[in-house]
Specification:
The structure holds two protein chains of two kinds. By secondary structure, chain A is an alpha/beta fold. Chain A is built from nine helices and 16 strands. Chain B has a seven-stranded antiparallel sheet. In chain B, strand 9, helix 3 and strand 10 form a beta-alpha-beta unit. Classes of the chains: A alpha/beta, B alpha/beta.
């Protein structure tokens, strides 16, 4: 091979804990539904993967409105994991999602370890799920969610229970609402997580000073968007130096430059969240932008880019 | 899609009418549907804003908006020939049954926005239409002379009595509707503040007439993925952006 290789198209493929993806761009859970709506706008087969809206054992109504509030360079949400339940997902949504040539990652949560494991078992037995993302970091549900992601003992317990319940590649999604996130990354890795995704939203709040009431009916919500990007990037950088499993970096990624910075910090893939709301075409633009960046700097594979600080 | 600003004119104090030329122009636009609009260039404000489609003229989309906050403030500063990002039309609009003969449109303030396009649809079907239009002051109403001469009966009210009847438009509507013969060929369409909509829904229930309400909600995506804009209905939380913004009046749990 001579120097001409640099003119060939760089290979964007990555392997995230056993999930082989054509490119490192995933859509983040809770910002993409079950893919139906977005499939009206573009070919979902372009994506590396789709992380579906958080699934629980039984359907959940979610929180009362108002559920969202715009903030400087971001937004607060307190959706409360409204979802159709894992069984309806498998019966009604999964067959449709499988039509696309992309990886389907099911985001799951439960009220206790047993429920987490049961949801994972359902998905393990279903045809066509490529991996599980364990949500131990949602700030908007009273039981479960973030309670598991802010106590390392609980993190260990729930990862262990889900690990036993399924053979699918297991990604653990970490909460940023902790003092030392590397402690939680190591706990997840120690219990057999195949990959780690980070970060979920930062717990926040907004007040209407004229009504003298919190804007969100749930009082507090999760902050996302570019406002949290420096925090997310710092945490990806720290965790990349603490564990061996691959990372999926997310938190306010709006464009390819943002995505590249997460990859340089040590993430093997990135997830696009709030940006899907701002411009639904963002994931496609990010894929193209990463490719352009790799061509510009003579990179042939993702190994040239991941952690290349 | 992108669109070009053709005109962004203040038609009354703080009320603007924005005319956009979308590229490509959407295949279908139904009355009561909405568009998500990038109010400013760049990422601040970060979220798009949802506006009902006011009118469609000569392959251009019109939006009628009141400046109430940062998003609409930014939008009001957009100039002719500016490019504005746009997604739409989105959501479910008003339904016009084949057997319908009479339409009563009830508009509160800027809630009049979707009714211009609706009036065009109703008129093309030769449906007898009356617009009940209430606002706070005469100025908010006076610009709307456009409607006169379109074959629509117009009844107006203002909070201060400076034009038309004094009082809330739903009360004016209630008084008038009691004089009409109401049957299944009549339908009420309402858009405006929530108290007005719930009053209109109660009236529809009492008179046993079909009603449709167009709701407003804070939205992040407008596409049905964020689940942020839900409203409580008799069948649980429904997305205003996807199952709405127009709902049967009797399906909403108003509290």
């Amino acid at each position: 091979m001579n120097k001409r290789t640099s003119f060939s198209t760089p290979d964007l493929a990555v392997n995230i804990g056993g999930i082989r993806m054509k490119n490192p761009v995933i859509t983040a859970s809770g910002t993409f539904g079950y893919g139906e709506e977005m499939s009206e706008l573009y070919d979902l087969s372009s994506l590396g993967g789709i992380m579906v809206k958080g699934l629980s054992l039984s359907p959940q109504p979610g929180n009362p409105p108002p559920r969202i509030c715009e903030t400087p360079a971001g937004m607060l949400n307190a959706i409360g994991l409204q979802n159709i339940g894992v069984r309806v997902f498998i019966e009604e949504k999964l067959p449709m999602l499988r039509r696309w040539d992309t990886r389907i990652i099911a985001n799951i949560y439960g009220h206790d370890c047993g429920e987490y494991a049961e949801v994972a078992r359902c998905l393990n037995d279903a045809e066509g799920v490529d991996g599980i993302e364990l949500n131990i970091s949602c700030p908007n549900v009273k039981k479960g969610g973030m309670a598991f992601g802010t106590d390392p003992v609980e993190t260990r317990k729930v990862v262990k229970a889900v690990r036993r319940a399924c053979r699918l590649p297991l990604i653990v999604k970490l909460s940023p609402n902790v003092t030392d996130i590397t402690e939680f990354a190591r706990a997840a890795e120690g219990e057999g997580a195949d990959a780690i995704s980070l970060i979920n939203t930062l717990l926040g709040m907004a007040i209407d000073i004229h009504l003298r009431k919190p804007i969100l009916a749930n009082i507090m919500g999760g902050l996302s968007g570019p406002a949290i990007r420096p925090v997310a990037l710092r945490m990806v950088y720290q965790v990349a130096r603490s564990v061996k499993v691959p990372l999926i970096g997310m938190g306010g990624i709006m464009n390819a430059e943002d995505a590249v910075s997460f990859l340089l910090a040590g993430a093997s893939a990135v997830a696009i969240g709030t940006a899907n709301f701002v411009d639904p075409m963002t994931p496609l633009k990010v894929i193209h932008g990463i490719r352009d960046y790799m061509i510009q700097y003579d990179m042939t594979s993702m190994q040239d880019l991941i952690g290349a600080l | 899609m992108t669109s070009e600003v053709i005109e962004n004119r203040e038609v009354a104090g703080g009320i603007f009418r924005l005319t956009l030329a979308p590229d490509p122009f959407p295949a279908t636009v139904a009355p009561g549907q909405f568009v998500m609009v990038r109010t400013a260039e760049g990422m601040d404000p970060i979220l798009s804003r949802a506006f009902s489609i006011h009118d469609v003229v000569d392959r251009k989309i019109r939006i009628l908006y009141r400046v109430v906050g940062r998003g609409t403030g930014c939008l009001s500063k957009r100039k002719k020939r500016d490019g504005i990002g746009l997604i739409g039309p989105l959501g479910r609009g008003f339904t016009i049954p084949k057997t319908m003969k009479t339409a009563w449109l009830v508009a509160g303030g800027i809630g009049v926005a979707p009714f211009q396009l609706m009036i065009r649809a109703l008129r093309s079907r030769k449906i007898h239409t009356t617009l009940f239009f209430g606002a706070r002051t005469a100025e908010e109403l006076a610009w709307y002379r456009d409607l006169e001469g379109q074959g629509v009966s117009l009844v107006v009210s203002t909070d201060d009595g400076s034009l038309g009847e004094k009082g809330k438009i739903v009360d004016v509507f209630r008084k008038q509707i009691l004089q009409y013969q109401v049957d299944q060929t009549c339908r009420v369409y309402a858009c405006g503040p929530r108290p007005m909509l719930s009053a209109a829904a109660r009236l529809c229930r009492d008179l046993k007439v079909q009603g449709e309400v167009s709701l407003e909600s804070e939205m992040a995506c407008g596409l049905g993925t964020c689940m942020g804009c839900v409203v409580l209905t008799s069948t649980g939380y429904q997305r205003v952006c996807r199952e709405g913004p127009v709902f049967p009046a009797d399906s909403i749990l108003w509290e």
